[in-house]
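dumping this here so i dont lose it
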């Protein structure tokens, strides 16, 4: 079975790295899809 974690990110440039890192640490077999939800910050970087 495959697992996909979907994370909606709105102006989360300061915390998105930690969120993704924690998901990968706790659920290493999961794929992660981060969706920019119309941010005006630098989430895409």
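and the seq i came up w/
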């Amino acid at each position: 079975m495959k697992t996909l974690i979907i994370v909606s990110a709105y102006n989360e440039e300061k915390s998105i790295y930690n969120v993704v890192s924690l998901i990968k640490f706790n659920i290493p077999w999961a794929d992660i899809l981060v969706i920019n939800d119309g941010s005006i910050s630098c989430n895409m970087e």
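The radius of gyration is 11 Å.
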